[in-house]
Amino acid sequence: MNYFIFCVVFIFGLTIGSFINCLIYRLYIGKSFLRGRSFCPKCKHGLAWHDNIPLLSFFMLNGRCRYCRRAISMQYPAVELITAILFTAIFVLEVERCGGIAMDLMLFNCSFAQLLKLLRNWVFTFFLIIIFVYDLRYYLILDKVTVPAMMVALVFNLTLADDMTVSIFWLLAAGSVAGGFFLIQFLVSKGKWIGGGDIYLGFLMGFMLGWPQILIALFVSYIVGSVVGIGLILSKRKTIKSEVPFGTFLSVGTFVTLMRGDWIIEKYLNLL
Ligand SMILES: [Zn+2]
């Protein structure tokens, strides 16, 4: 196995994680993420390049801003590390599918479609991490994120499709089933159980996963949501009436299905 390429992918993931943190903060304060230098969110002091190295700076600075000494949110190193781990895992999983012995050789064995699928899974995961963190922190799913992600998902999946007309039908069907499912809950509860952002996220999940994977994603999301919810209620950190960051669970379900959906379907069919 070639560890060099492994490290390159990991560092690439750290950098994307750092970009996601920056994006989330700037979406929150409503500032363009294309312009302006990085700064401390607390004292607004501009950051030097060495204050801004993913993961490393956080530990070198002992988790505090160099200028105002106030604590840097754990979100920063956590998102960087998780992004790097997920990006590396996606890389290993996709490159493994191409067959071969050495990691660096396998990359050359990959067809264009296989490399495109690797890129697609990275891009989908990028959007899912933003939705996961933003909903967890601010209890909101931004249309500014889900709508562009829907376009990107359709373009990737239609490019990868064997038959485009068949594929667009099933992608739209999957999106409508999940989006419609949330829309009904939204209307019945008058927006109490579920937010408007969840409806968009339902469509996005369908466009990313297609049919029948969307059903697996919903199922996994509800299981994860219930387990975490019961855990939080039992540990008295939340009550049954607490607000739930549902988008966080939906993005977990979508990611799991994106990675292992076919495997889950196969296992399920074997049980029948
Ligand atoms: Zn500061």
TrEMBL record:
GO terms for molecular function: aspartic-type endopeptidase activity. The chain crosses the membrane at residues 6-28, 76-95, 115-134, 167-188, 215-234, 246-265. The keyword Cell membrane applies. It comes from the Bacteria. Keywords: Cell membrane, Membrane, Transmembrane, Transmembrane helix. It is found in: Cell membrane. It is a multi-pass membrane protein. Residues 122-230 form the Prepilin type IV endopeptidase peptidase domain. GO terms for biological process: signal peptide processing. Its main location: membrane. InterPro entries: Prepilin_IV_endopep_pep, Prepilin_pept_A24_N, Prepilin_peptidase/N-MTase. GO terms for cellular component: plasma membrane. Residues 11-92 form the Prepilin peptidase A24 N-terminal domain. Gene3D superfamilies: 1.20.120.1220. Belongs to the peptidase A24 family. This is Prepilin peptidase. It comes from Candidatus Kuenenbacteria bacterium CG1_02_38_13.
